[in-house]
Specification:
Blueprint lengths: L2 H9 L1 H14 L12 E6 L2 H15 L3 E6 L12 E6 L6 H7 L8 E5 L5 H5 L2 E4 L12 H18 L9 H20 L1 H12 L5 E5 L4 H13 L5 E5 H7 L3 H4 L3 E4 L6 H10 L3 E5 L8 E3 L7 H7 L1 H13 L2
Parallel strand pairs: 1-2, 1-3, 3-4, 4-5, 6-7, 6-8, 8-9, 9-10
Helix pairs in contact: 1-14, 2-7, 3-6, 3-9, 6-7, 7-13, 8-14, 9-14, 10-12
Length: 325
């Protein structure tokens, strides 16, 4: 792992997303999915599972029986003739994910979503869906996380197309990837304007805490992971509504630094507690009254653009701390 190479991986995000959008426009990575599909099991660890939780929630909202499971769980759905299993691992070598696939191998319904088409995971799958993220020389899953989100949105759109309830059509996913590339590029181009202040605001003695709505919980969890994985600082992620039940207590005793991703119906209660306890709040993607600072970017009025873009703030802060600047 290398902070300079990690930063280079982040700077390559816009170009990488545009390549993915072109691949989505030109072909169908999910071609060959078994039919029919009545149940979807998404398996992964770490950032792969964070992305999977988002997709499972959207599938359930569309009436599809879907769950995102820890690959390390000792029990899970049994294989079935109408159960689609999607195992997610950027490297294709995650031991827990490989172990979890053993009960589904030979079913004809095991899909590998991976950035390594010649990996052990790809070798046992019935269908391989490439992430098209390129090599992450910094050793941190950043572009692969973003690409996983896009491809899972594409899967959701495909599986829900005939139910007439999908908000994103399949063609729109490629367009969304391009809009996210523009948003990412905007944040990168203007980082000298916002990054020094953001890094200073979040630089407290007790780590940082990230909040996001359930529909974008992956943003909070991934942001916290980037701070732990790169600069090795304490960080935790929480769903905004749940925060008032499980994390608010820390604001009484800690120098609480919150990275806040707005959009939950329960933003107001969390922000009220944060103001009462004089916590530091850095908001991303929308105006938040009382925040110490707000970071806006191109296209942040679209929740799906936020989903694919907003973790870049924590990633760049992490890269700055990690690199010692």
């Amino acid at each position: 792992m290398d902070p300079r190479l990690f930063l280079a991986d982040l700077e390559a995000k816009p170009e990488s997303l545009r390549r993915l959008a072109a691949a989505l426009t030109d072909g169908d990575g999910w071609r060959g999915l078994p039919d029919p599909v009545e149940r979807v099991l998404l398996l992964g660890m770490g950032s792969s599972r964070y992305a999977a939780e988002m997709a499972a929630l959207r599938l359930r909202a569309a009436g599809v029986d879907a769950v995102a499971e820890y690959a390390s769980a000792a029990v899970a759905y049994p294989p079935g003739p109408r159960t689609l299993v999607v195992a997610i691992s950027a490297t294709g070598t995650s031991q827990e994910t490989l172990d979890a696939t053993s009960r589904y191998q030979g079913s004809g319904r095991l899909v590998a979503l991976t950035n390594a088409s010649d990996s052990p995971l790809a070798n046992v799958a019935d269908l391989v869906v490439p992430m098209h993220a390129g090599a992450e020389a910094g050793g941190v899953a950043c572009r692969t996380f973003q690409h996983t989100l896009v491809l899972l949105l594409d899967l959701v759109a495909r599986l829900t197309a005939r139910r007439d309830v999908a908000r994103l059509g399949r063609r729109d996913v490629a367009g969304l990837a391009r809009r996210a590339a523009d948003a990412t590029e905007d944040l990168l181009a203007r980082r000298d304007e916002w990054l020094p202040a953001a890094a200073e605001l979040l630089d407290g003695p007790h780590g940082i805490y990230t909040l996001a709505p359930a529909e974008r919980l992956s943003s909070a969890l991934q942001s916290a992971l980037m701070v732990r994985e790169g600069p090795r600082r304490p960080a935790g992620g929480c769903e905004t509504g749940d925060w008032s039940h499980v994390d608010v207590y820390l604001t009484r005793t800690l120098d609480y630094r919150a990275l806040f991703f707005p959009g939950s119906r329960y933003d107001a209660p969390a922000l009220d507690w944060l103001r009462q306890r004089e916590s530091t709040v850095l908001a991303v993607g929308a105006e938040v009254a009382g925040a110490a600072a707000v970071i806006r970017y191109r296209g942040d009025d679209d929740p799906d653009v936020r989903l694919l873009t907003e973790t870049l703030v924590a990633e760049l802060v992490a890269a700055r701390w990690w690199g010692g600047s």
